[in-house]
Amino acid sequence: MLDRSKVGHEFDSFNVDIEKGRLKFFAEAIGETNPVYFSETAAHDAGYKAMLAAPTFPFPLDMEGPELLPVLNFLSMDISRLLHGSQEFEYLGMIYAGDNITVTSKIKDMFDKKSGALEFVVLESTYTNQNGDLVARAINSLVYRNPSV
Question: What is the largest CA-CA distance in the chain?
Fold first, then answer.
């Protein structure tokens, strides 16, 4: 069983520069067609200060930290038993090209189902811009298959 006393642990924050090329690549990858995600001019014409990040863009920012999925080492989890359970986003502002986003993640909850055969780790990440504005929040649920049950 995973150590539930670790609920509330906050991992080290890190910063990510948001570049135009990266925003375009992501928007293309998810099939977005709105020009505000591809063109500075289109974004300005639509009333935005710069090119925008497409929906769900905060998720890949989590992978920019010094350690990919730090929760694995912290909870001594075997990646071969890990599944992605769910992902939710709350948008509180905009992420623009040129922003510097601080990503902070913590373990929000842990629980089990099927008499412990499946353990869930709920992570919350926040994304704050260089002005101190919280622009997004994400909840990510990981499912850990426990072979000992």
Answer: 58
Residue 10 has pLDDT above 90, yes or no: yes
C-alpha 132/C-alpha 138 separation (Å) is: 17
* Half-sphere exposure of residue 124: CA atoms within 13 angstroms, side-chain side: 13
- Identity (one letter) of the amino acid at 131? N
How is domain 4-16+54-145 classified at the architecture level of CATH? Roll (3.10)
d(CA 137, CA 15): 15
Q: What angle do CA 136, 140, 143 make, to 5 degrees?
A: 180
Secondary structure of residue 44 in the 3-state scheme = helix
Whether the per-residue pLDDT at 149 is higher than 90: the answer is no
